[in-house]
Amino acid sequence: MEYLSSNKIAIIDLGASKTIQKELDEDLVKEKIGGAGITTALYEEYRDEDPIVLGTGLLTGTLAPASALGMVTAKSPVTGKICHAPFTLYGGVELKYCGFDYVVIKGSSPKPVYLWIHDGIADVNDGKEIWGKDVWISTDMIREVMGDPLIQILAIGKAGESESDFAQVCINYWASGDRWGFGKLFGQKKLKLVAMRGMSLLEIADPEGFVRKCKEFLSTIKSGPYAGKGGIGELSAAMGEDIRQWLEPIIHRHLSCFNTPFPTNTFVFLDEDPKLLKETEKKEPGFLITDVHGLLGYKKLGLSAAEACDLLRDCAKYGIDAVAVAELSQKAGKKKPDEIKKSLSGLKGSLESVGKGKFSPWAPSFTLSSDEWERRQAVAYLFGIHPIYALMSPEFSEEKLIELANLGTGLGFTSETLDKVIIDILK
Amino acid sequence: MGIKVDPKKCVSCMACELACGYHRDDGFALLSSCIMVTRGREKKDYSAVVLKEEENLVIARPEGLEIRKLGSTGEASSGREKEDASAKPLLLREPCDLCGDREEGPLCLQFCPVNAISMN
Fold first, then answer.
1. What does the pLDDT look like over A149-159, one tens digit per residue?
2. Is-contact B34 B25, C-beta < 8 A?
3. Residues of chain A neighbouring B25 (CB-CB closer than 8 A)
4. What residue of A is the nearest CA neighbor of B109?
5. Looking at the complex, does the CB of residue A256 fall below 8 Å from at least one CB of chain B?
6. Which chain B residues have a beta carbon less than 8 Å from that of A269?
7. Ramachandran quadrant class, A374 (left: phi over 0; alpha: psi -120 to 50; beta: rest)
8. If pLDDT is split at 50, 70 and 90, which confidence band does B74 have?
9. What does the alpha-carbon distance between residue A376 and residue B117 come to, in Å, rounded to a whole number?
10. Distance between CA atoms of A181 and A168, rounded to whole angstroms?
């Protein structure tokens, strides 16, 4: 695969602690496009070895608006189905640039390990120093050891190590869109984290045509209904559960994922003045909210915004899905932050908020029907478009994405190709 | 004439960095950009936009702008370690040429989704 690609797949055998590399076959891309199309195909190829597949979409890491998406594809311990969980911020782009479009992690390690994927190399390293540490400390330790604060990390905390059904694979210090208990899978495989860093160059079949078209799309988006807006509060308002006033006093600023026109994340300061402009002296002043559902769950318990965000921070450190914690706390009648914090270890119960399909319910449905939501998610996960942003920008249509994919790769995708792949991955 | 950055509008999406990288490399890469969003202080939510010009290093921080003459004292430490946590330090890259070969002007400006970049 020559364009928009690193042209490599890493196959990592945790049991044997060995990695092999394969080329990304252009015929596979022609048939499956990318992203969830190819992670699903790779899952099926290695199905007998209980794989976790990491991947990026065809347009991830390009100037296509919102091309931020990376994904984890595996069998969910929660639903028993093959599901896809998103990782955004700078994780998707870092995976694309680290030299592999896809990473298959198969088998289990007898001892704690972590993966260090960088510049076309994938190493299995001893993880005994970080096993037992929370997500924040683990991320800090890896970045310090490697001497690079820009390493992007998919990590589990103690929830994953103890194989909780609600364990989440976090991204750096923050919650991800993993609602499938993939953190438990990491824990079962004794895989503490995946560290990614790379400096690849992605070539483009028609560079100027591709960039011109990206610019046109961005121009349309910039005059759309979300122009000038941002943050988790706006998402909640679009969902009909407006928390903007409740959250406002602690907001430091809103942050985008890679090349995403709408900032879907909000950083709140809990131990610092939110209006501070200069660099704080505090090492850990707050939290980046990346999941609106967890926040809404704690608000429903009657907590203040600061209490809710403090709990989100604890959940991320522990590596547990805050949505599950909020729902189970509600059911158990726990409404005080301290008692909720104490319940993280050994949390059990059944959830009603579990996604029923292939794609994480992390992306709100807004006003879409379930069929419309699912198709739009499928498109996002194939092309590598931020799954929330894909729902917010219908003007970024399937036809436009296909046009971009063809300018980028020269492979001649059609709407028939897309329909076929979507049917395949929704099976 | 030069590029002006409003860091209070910036959402740290890196579109400017990738657009600049494309201008340099005719492909998508981040190692040659002369504009970058510093992301090394993630837990503190503190970042700046740094631009290498022909003679200056421009650091647009939320609390204000700093312009350092290239070659001045202190440039190396701040340019390499604090503002610029990258594999290829900004000071080793080509300075901004305002995308002089492009009729529509600088690509970073055109790709900023929140209009944080403008021409001085």
1. 999 999 999 99
2. no
3. 201
4. A215
5. yes
6. 45
7. alpha
8. low
9. 31
10. 6
Give the pLDDT of residue B120: 84
Give me the pLDDT at residue A345, please: 94
Q: Which of residues 136-155 of A touch B (CB under 8 A)?
A: 136, 148-150
What is the CA angle A114-A116-A118, rounded to 5? 165
Sign of the C-alpha dihedral computed for residues A341, A344, A348 and A353 taken in this order: positive
Say if A263 is an interface residue toward chain B (CB within 8 Å): yes
Q: What is the pLDDT of residue B71?
A: 76
Q: Chain A residues with CB inside 8 Å of B29's CB? A: 97, 199-202
CA distance A283 to chain B (A): 7
Q: Rounded CA gap, A123 and A144, in Å?
A: 18
The reply to whether residue B13 touches residue A218, judged by beta carbons under 8 angstroms, is no
- For residue A138, the model assigns a pLDDT of 98
Confidence at residue B82, expressed as pLDDT on a 0 to 100 scale: 55
Residue A186 is predicted with a pLDDT of 98
Contacts of B61 in chain A (CB under 8 A): 277-278
B15 touches chain A (CB under 8 A): yes
Which range of A304-308, B38-42, B55-59 scores highest in mean pLDDT? It is A304-308
Parse chain B into domains and list their residue ranges. Answer: 3-119
Angle A213-A218-A224 (CA atoms, 0-180°, nearest 5)? 135
The answer on pLDDT for B84 being more than 80 is no
Distance in angstroms (rounded) separating the CA atoms of residues A248 and B36: 29
A77-96 pLDDT per residue, tens: 989 999 999 999 999 999 99
A86 token code pair: 């998103």
On average, the pLDDT of chain A sits at 96
Residue B78 confidence (pLDDT): 46
pLDDT tens-digit readout, A278-294: 999 999 999 999 999 99
Best to test chain A binding among B38, B43, B110 (most A CBs inside 10 Å): B43
Indicate yes or no: CB of B27 within 8 angstroms of CB of A202: yes
pLDDT of res. B81: 45
**CB proximity under 8 Å: A 192-231 to B:** 199-204, 207, 211, 214-215, 218, 221-222, 228, 230
Q: What length does chain A have?
A: 427
Cα angle at B115 between A65 and A149, to 5 degrees?
A: 65
Q: Is B12 left (phi over 0), alpha (psi -120 to 50) or beta?
A: left
Question: A53 phi and psi, to 5 degrees?
Answer: -115, 125
CA neighbor of A13 nearest in space, from A94, A88, A115, A87? A115
Residues in A closer than 8 angstroms to B43, CB to CB, are 136, 173, 283-285
| CB contacts < 8 A (A, B) | 118
pLDDT tens per residue, range A155-214: 999 999 999 999 999 999 999 999 999 999 999 999 999 999 999 999 999 999 999 999
